[in-house]
Amino acid sequence: MTNPLILDGTRVAEAIKEELKARIHTLESQGIVPCLATILVGDDPASETYVRMKGNACKRLGIESKRIHLDKSTSTEQLVEVIAQLNADPLVHGILLQHPVPHQIDERAAFEAISIHKDVDGVTALGFAQNAFGYADYPSCTPAAIIAILDYYQIPIAGKHAVVIGRSPILGKPVSLMLLNRDATVTICHSKTENVAEMLKHADIVIAAVGKPKFIQGEWLRKGAVVLDAGYNPGNVGDVDYDACLAGASAITPVPAGVGPVTIAMLLKHTVDAATRLLRH
């Protein structure tokens, strides 16, 4: 077999951001500066890093980043009130609530408080439903990134058998629906699935989103499978045993520099999309 194609997420992300630059310039000429509000509750170091990274990405592109940092003792009611204020602010186009939130907060209630028109991270139930029907303005960013990578490298989806490992409401489930809407045959595996290895032997496309380091083994793969690793675990490793899977895959994303950079690029794109809606209404 020829060497596998390395699906370079940094390259895909740069292409997306390059296209956004002209759109941002057009918006600015109309007096509109795209703005993403990020809400961080508590002081989780990893979350602080993620929020900072997203803010820096906004700044480099000319998107305003409005950062709101709430105390770890914040209640669900207080958080929902902050979100309501952002919903009502015409200068804020996208709202991102950083996950996870402290235990006393009803995370689902907080997500549902975000206006569908500002749900650029695709976390609301309505956004999920729109994604299922194939017309979401802002699907969840990591699933959108996975589809963007496949499209950038012109990897066929229609008619292919995709196996998704993981069923989270913002990754495994929505990406399965997006693949289904693109005419793939989709199998979803999860913690109760028996013999995951056997399932993968029939997969043309493998989406790893299980949250277990190096879970997917090379011998599980069908020869020539396309592997997209959406996992990120301590030690900069994904959910795929990269070295073991490299030999048999026809294409594979590395970790880091695979799905991650494109996820952030899709968040920026959705924010610009939300700001662009102002020109249409």
UniProtKB/TrEMBL annotation:
SUPFAM superfamilies xrefs: Aminoacid dehydrogenase-like, N-terminal domain (SSF53223), NAD(P)-binding Rossmann-fold domains (SSF51735)
Gene Ontology cellular component annotations, sorted alphabetically: cytosol
GO biological process, one term: purine nucleotide biosynthetic process
Residue ranges of domain Tetrahydrofolate dehydrogenase/cyclohydrolase catalytic in the record: 7-121
Gene3D superfamilies documented for this protein: Leucine Dehydrogenase, chain A, domain 1 (3.40.50.10860), NAD(P)-binding Rossmann-like Domain (3.40.50.720)
Residue intervals of the Tetrahydrofolate dehydrogenase/cyclohydrolase NAD(P)-binding domain: 140-277
EC id: 1.5.1.5, 3.5.4.9
MF-aspect GO terms: methenyltetrahydrofolate cyclohydrolase activity; methylenetetrahydrofolate dehydrogenase (NADP+) activity
Pfam annotation, one family: THF_DHG_CYH
Subunit comment: Homodimer.
HAMAP family in UniProt: THF_DHG_CYH
Protein name as catalogued: Bifunctional protein FolD
